[in-house]
Amino acid sequence: MTNVVVISGGGTGIGFASAVYFARKGAQLVLLGRRAHILTDAAKRLAAELPAAPAALCLTGDLSAAESAEGVVGRIREAFTHVDVLVNAAGGSVVMQASDAQYADGLAGVARRWTDNFRLNVLSTVLLTEGLRDRLRSPGGRILFVSSIAAYRGSVQGCYAAAKAALHPYTYDLATALGPKGITVNTVAPGYIRDTEFFGEKLSDERRETLIAQTMNKRPGTPEDVANTIGWLASPEASHVTGQIIQVNGGAERGR
């Protein structure tokens, strides 16, 4: 039976690397994102690299907005009777993505910055997950969240780190609720991951070297490092692992 794997943020970075991982396993992919051209390009790349894999279904929408999320979830529920794996890879830091001027107007800017980070990283995950939780295969379903090392070590302005940290108690609560059904819920917490939109070109060479130096294995992480961990957590071999935050940051979370 072909596994159905839904991946938010599936067009780039960790999300796309996860898509490649599951496509190699012959899964039916559902790629979600806000930018249709990014998803279309991702689907073409997958088809070119893995022509034997089922064609990916691409759905666009803003998962942080209830009405848009309802539309996306509705289309998934219409297309599939169940979901085997849900990977919530969508998210990011609005401060890194936006101009400084966008959040510069006093407390209004502070409120907007914190609210936007919460919407991008928490609501986008919660709305999709809650919309599909009753469609997860039982037993055997898997839910994965992508947090960050920032949830443990901060993110300078706090808002991104706080948003990612909010996923941790949600992981525990959902794992407790779904565990009796044989569904696991886990989170991965990456550190510096090269070749992603999150870091992009804004990271100075000095900052990049500092982040690498903080790891125990003295190398940057790759999207594949995170995807491989997600893939294992989604496998039958990890059926007794749930409610966990798995560090994928070369030991940098330990503060070296």
From TrEMBL:
SMART domains: PKS_KR (SM00822). Residues 3-196 form the Ketoreductase domain. This is SDR family oxidoreductase. Pfam families: adh_short_C2. Keywords: Oxidoreductase. Belongs to the short-chain dehydrogenases/reductases (SDR) family. It comes from the Bacteria. The keyword Mitochondrion does not apply. Signal peptide: none annotated. CDD domains: SDR_c. It comes from Pendulispora rubella.
